[in-house]
Every structure is written in C-alpha cells, then in structure tokens.
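ok, trying the design again with the full structure, not the truncated one.
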C-alpha cells in the first residue's frame, strides 16, 4: 500500500466551506512490484456544510491517471473519470 493526499479547505461562511484535493496511491502484493507509473492519480473539489454534529461533504473527483486504462484522460467519457462521494465527517 502506498497512498497520499493533499487537501486545502476553506471556510466561505460560518457553516459553509469548500475543498480542493489531490490524491495518489495503489496496492501491490509485495514491495518488489512497486512502480511509480502504477500510481493512480486523482484530483477534485468539494463542498462542506459544518453542522453542530459533524461536517457533511459532497466531493467531485476526477481520475487523472488510471494505471489500469490505456485510454488517455481527455479521451475518456466524463462518467468514466468522475466520482461523486457524499460523506459525513472529514476524510482524514
């Protein structure tokens, strides 16, 4: 397992916020299989609502590089590269 993430969060108002993020990683059976060109890369943005109990997230991620696909990012259909996630609490 090799993974990482960068995220920038901004409070636009008292209870509303936004985020942009960059994620990378992958999983191999053993360390000898690790290669940098096998890392999946994604980026995206999201919206946050900060309730009294926990933040609610709506994130839109784009798969920039998929090591399992030989089709270039810009030649794939939108819903092949777009991931939408709804969550409660911060991702990390």
């Amino acid at each position: 397992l090799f993974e990482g993430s960068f995220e920038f969060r901004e409070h636009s108002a008292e209870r509303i916020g936004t985020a942009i993020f960059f994620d990378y990683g992958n999983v191999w059976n053993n360390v000898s299989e690790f290669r940098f060109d096998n890392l999946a890369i994604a980026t995206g943005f999201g919206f946050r609502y900060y309730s009294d109990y926990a933040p609610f997230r709506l994130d839109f991620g784009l798969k920039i590089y998929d090591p399992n696909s030989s089709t270039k990012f810009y030649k794939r259909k939108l819903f092949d590269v777009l991931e939408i996630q709804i969550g409660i609490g911060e991702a990390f």
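Keeping the full-length input from now on. DSSP finds one helix and five strands in the chain.
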